Amino acid sequence: MFTWLNKQGVRSDFGFELQFTGRFSAEYKEGSQVVKLYVEDGLCAGIPCILVEPKAFERWDNGVLIPPEQREQMFQNLKEALEFQGLKMSVE
């Protein structure tokens, strides 16, 4: 379940937040850990989508490497947060 933080951000009951911080940037947070994401607007089959790089979740902003299984979960979390906001995600 998601709740809106403001017009650009949501919080999940699973303990993460997604906040758009600029035209090409967003922050993914889990507790005190943060990953700054480079994002772009795009279209996926005519539906607005957010383009994200495959290496988006390699490291936390403090430099700590994120394990592969956690990265997969983070991409899934991001996808669900975007869908809640009426957007699709494309990893390119």
Mean pLDDT, to the nearest integer, reads 95
Content of β-strand: over 45%
- Helical coverage, percent range: 10-25%
Provide the spatial order of strands within the biggest beta sheet. Answer: 1-2-3-4-5-6-7
Structural class assignment:
alpha+beta
Number of strands: 7
In angstroms, what is the radius of gyration? Answer: 12 Å
Count of all domains:
1
Order of helices and strands: EEEEEEHE
Q: Runs with pLDDT <50, length 5+?
A: none
General shape: globular
Our measurement of the CA-to-CA distance between the termini, rounded to an integer number of angstroms, reads 27 Å
Instruction: Please summarize the sheet with the most strands.
Output: 7 strands, mixed
Number of helices: 1
